[in-house]
Design a protein that fits this description.
This protein is mainly α. About 80% of the residues lie in helices and about 0% in strands.
Amino acid sequence: MSQLTPARRALALIALALGGFAIGSTEFVAMGLLPNIAQALLPHQYGVDPEAGIAHAGWLVSAYALGVVVGAPTIAAMSAKFPRKGLILVLLVGFVLATVASAVLPSFGLVLVARFVAGLPHGAYFGIASIVAGDIMGPGKRGKGIAMVLLGLSVANVVGVPAITWVGQVASWRVAYGVVALLFALTFLAVLAFVPRSARDEHATIGRELRAFRVPQVWMVMGLGAVGFGGFFAVYSYISPLVQNVTGLPESFVPLVLVVVGVGMVVGGVLGGHLADHSVKRTIYVGMFALIGALLVTVLTAQWAWGVFLGAFLLGATSSAIPPAVQSRLMDVAGDARTIAAALNHSAFNIGNSLGAALGGAVIAAGFGFTAPGWLGIVLALLGVLMTMVSYGAERRTARRAALRSSSPSTGPITSPVPIV
């Protein structure tokens, strides 16, 4: 894609980032509207026990995340040979239809199914769009290309999620999802107009892509993303009740807190893309410890307005600085299975999304309060650090064994005084 003019390259990257913006909006808007959704779809439970009703509505967050987990590897493996631009357009059509269904279906159970279906294209979109963006950016700039696509998701948390949350509070959560469907339709048109065609990978097969699952390091890095980022989602999934019940701010402040989370995500995403191109390992370690610090700040200062805003910024910045590095590492350890590796990053993070939302809702429903998900998040993030250490430790041991094998004489006389049996 080196023949692209700078203007065409910029427009193509913006179109791909717009998809990230729409996906960020559909994924995170529910978190600011959980009380509204619970009141509308679970009126009896919400009327008897608001905390239990909100925790039950949190299943919508988990359902979307599970859709990502299922859809990312499945779609990526089955479509590895397809032209990437055409596949992105098909995925965007799927987003439009599932989001419209989320807006119009009448019961909680049906909306739950719609949110699961809406999550299916998520990981495949980000994975394939990241590969295309990396190709557009050129050699040595893969981290920046990945960060550019993810930047759309971060910007969604500055502009899209707060604005659509406000629309949902003023009009209806159903109207909010209608706005999200419109964003996906606009992304379809932008990708159609500006993203260049790319040659299909004629050597790609489902078997080659699925071989990534035989690589232990792939599972280790996915574990890092799933468990480590469960800590962030345990808090973010219930940011609305935290702001209203712990900090004591009115509902109108929730979009402002979401804006601050989004600003942090933009800052962290840009920084993370640059750092990942310099050192993937250092970026992951520093980012994970920074996430633990952000969770601690949030838990300890959430009772004050300044504390909840500071915690929101730090959570946004630390959570978005790490994904470009994690995705780069997955693509490195997966070998030729580049398409599925890029998508698996989002499966891992959405396992964390589902895990964090489910466990966060469980501790709230158990009566531990709305700060309990923060303490849970710290434990999950520490487990993520442990998985990172295990992953890199295994890599060092493998490298040492390979070095020993390569240095051992394979021909010529045996000079060792010890007889070899």
